[in-house]
Amino acid sequence: METIEGPAVVAIDERHCAGIRVVTPFRGMYAVRDRLMKELYAWLDEREIKPGVAFFRLHVVNMVGDMDVEFGVITDGPIEGDDRVHANVLPSGQFATLTGAGNGVGANRTLLDWIRARNLTMDCVESPAGDRFGCRYEAYLTDPRKEPKKKLWRIELAIRLAS
Question: What is the arithmetic mean of pLDDT over 15-20?
Answer without folding.
Answer: 96
